[in-house]
Amino acid sequence: MRFSVPRSLSPSPVRRQHRRSQSTFGLLDSEESESSDSDGPDSDDSFCYASESEVPQPQITPRAKIKTTAEQRRVEDTVAAIRLRTRHHDPYEEWEKQTRKDAFRIARKKQTTIQLQIHDERDQARTQETRRLVELHARQMAEVQAQLNSLKLQQQKEEDKLRQGWQERDRLLWQRIDSVIQLEEDKVRARLEAERKLREQEERKRQEEEMQKRQLVEKRRKEEEDKRKAVEDEERRRLEDKKRTEEEERQRVQDEKDRADRLTSEGEHRKAAGLTTAQEDWASARQIRTVLKTNTMMPIKSNKANKSAWGEQRRKINPKIGQLTNDPRAIREITDFIHDKIIMPQQRHPPMLYTGLLSSLGKIILLQAETEVTAEKKAAVPLAQVAFTLLDRLETFPDIFFAKLVQRCGGWPIPCAVPKTDFDGRPWADEEERAKMMGYRRSVEQQGAREPIVEYMTRVAGDMRLYFHILRIPPQARPMHPMFQFPRCWTWFARIMGDYALLETPVAAQLIYTALDVLGSHALEVWGQQWVKMLELVYQGATVGFAEGRFIGGPTGVGTSARSRVRTEVERIMAGAR
After folding, report:
1. In a domain, 124, yes or no
2. Are residue 447 and residue 494 in the same domain, yes or no?
């Protein structure tokens, strides 16, 4: 929208004729606007002066006088239009003006942001370029330094090579000089050495002749003295050996006679009391083992059906015994399973198969003791509980189990020395057969040779620890087999302490320690002062000796260590009794 103010009255008749006579309140129409625009400074007939001096001075024209009322009214309308125009407020113009300001402010802000971003990018690019130049400079410096070091190292190597060459040349030179000097010295030394050796040879020859004469005389005298001493020593040794042999033979004969007389005199009382001797116990166990092998195991293994049935049931026992733990419920379940499902099922086994299964059961229990108890002493407790219950509930199992124990341990469960003949009077075929009866096994590590004494002691101690734990368990409803009653502990100690030949072996010392470890404190509670006397006898044999120079366990290192354990165990038992 454009507004214009009417021009003042022009004296030109040409311009006046274009004026509209009617009042428009100072507002021109479009034609007048266009004509007025054409008269503006941008029109074609506009001009400019060349200098300010050419600008004409404005002429002061007198104020026109209003002649008519129409003119007066027209002037008033014009003034009112001007006043209205100056006081008019157009929102659109205000909005357009504010929009221009906002656009200008946003443009300036955007321009400032863009300029800051451009400056930052330039600074960053300048920094990166500076860093790149620094890195390039450092890399070039490193390369130059490396090249310098390489050249320096090469120069050093060349200098070292030259120095070594000079040193080698000097060394060879001095070596040639020294060799010439050494050659001359060797010639002089060889001449002097030859003269010295010649003198020494002559002197040595003279001394050797004198020494041979003295040695010949001394040899003759020494031979005569040695012959005389040898004759005297041989005579004395022969007399001592004869005297000792006669004494030992006389003592042995006397001991055997006394033992035989004592056994004879006590035979009736012993039979009346139901007691047996050690040899009788060994013969009984050996006989049971022989009968079990010939009358039971050999027929079972020779018959395919019996062997199959026996093997099937035997294989059920192994995992149960191997799974045994020190848990009363587990012990009861395993014992009931072996008794009710394997040995005594609802459909009873034939007598031969029943006996064979009892033999296998005893062997499995003892093998478990040899492997588990030797590694951990506490493993003997649950195994002894199972064995005790089965010994109490299974008929003929005590005799078979004790026979298997004697087979695995020799005469130590009784205890007694294995005699020179079998229970039927047959002598042993050789020493190996007798060693087998004593419980020795073949060692796999030594390619079938007899197992070492330490291995034998450990295995037998595992079986005997199981046996001693069985003796300690009190009977339930009825008395146990005589071989598994607690009084066997006293019998065992009385027999082994009365046999000096057994006491001098390392196995005896180890088994005495095992028995004291399991039964020592319990026996003290049962027998009191009588057991203290037995402990005093054991302690004397381990410290002072039961004879002159004879101790429990013998003089070997294995026996000495076992004897030390016996002494410590007796001291522990007596300390607990106070």
Report:
1. no
2. no
- Cross-strand pairs, 427: 421
Mean per-residue pLDDT, 411-437: 87
Return the closest-CA partner of residue 360 out of 320, 410, 418, 415: 320
Is 442 strand, coil or helix?
Answer: strand
User: Rounded to whole angstroms, how far apart are CA atoms 515 and 494?
Assistant: 13
Sequence-distant (6+) residues with CB within 8 A of 397 are 358, 361, 362, 390, 391
The answer to whether residue 523 sits within a structural domain is: yes
**What gap in Å lies between CA 102 and CA 335, rounded to an integer?**
103
Size of the chain, expressed as the number of residues it contains: 578
Closest Cα partner for 471 from 410, 367, 370, 401? 401
What tokens appear for 373 in the block? 């108890």
CA separation for the pair 261, 251 (Å, rounded)? 15
- In the predicted structure, residue 23 carries a pLDDT above the cut 60: no
Domain shared by 540 and 444, yes or no = no
Per-residue 3-state assignment (H helix, E strand, C coil) for 202-222 = HHHHHHHHHHHHHHHHHHHHH
**Cα–Cα dist 556/564, whole Å:** 12
* AA letter at 395: E
Overall domain count for the chain: 3
Instruction: State the amino acid at position 194 in one-letter form.
Output: A
Which residue, 567, 572, 376, is CA-closest to 466? Answer: 376
Please report, in angstroms and rounded to a whole number, the separation of the first and last CA atoms in the chain.
133
Question: In this structure, are 503 and 547 located in the same domain?
Answer: yes
| Cβ atoms of residues 335 and 384 within 8 Å | no
Half-sphere exposure (Cβ direction) of 249: Cα atoms closer than 13 Å: 6
- The most confident of the ranges 198-212, 245-259, 268-282 is 198-212
Tell me the C-alpha distance between 495 and 277, whole Å: 9
- Lookup result for tokens 């008929």: 395
Per-residue pLDDT at 367:
93
Give 442's pLDDT tier (boundaries 50, 70, 90): confident
CA distances from 136 to 122, 127, 128, 146, 149 (A): 20, 14, 12, 15, 19
Identify whether residues 479 and 493 lie together within a single domain: no
> 400 and 542 share a domain?
no
**Residues contacting residue 313 through CB under 8 Å, at least 6 positions apart:** 342, 349, 353, 357
Q: Which amino acid is at 381?
A: V
Q: What is the C-alpha separation between 245 and 238, in angstroms, rounded?
A: 10
CB 418, CB 286: distance < 8 Å: no
Rounded Cα distance, 95 and 102, in Å? 10
User: pLDDT band at 374, cuts 50/70/90?
Assistant: confident
User: Are 512 and 477 contained in the same domain?
Assistant: no
Residue 567 burial (10 A CB sphere; 0-12, 13-18, 19+)? middle
Return the DSSP state at 39.
Answer: T
d(CA 552, CA 502): 9
Residue keyed to tokens 């649950």: 382
Q: Name the domain boundary from 484, 504, 524.
A: 484
What does the alpha-carbon distance between residue 367 and residue 55 come to, in Å, rounded to a whole number? 145
Q: What are φ and ψ of residue 450, in 5° steps?
A: -65, 140
Domain region containing 3: 1-9+23-37+73-87
Q: How many helices (H) and strands (E) does the chain have?
A: 18, 0
d(CA 347, CA 10): 155
Q: Is the pLDDT of residue 34 over 70?
A: no
Res 202 pLDDT > 50: yes
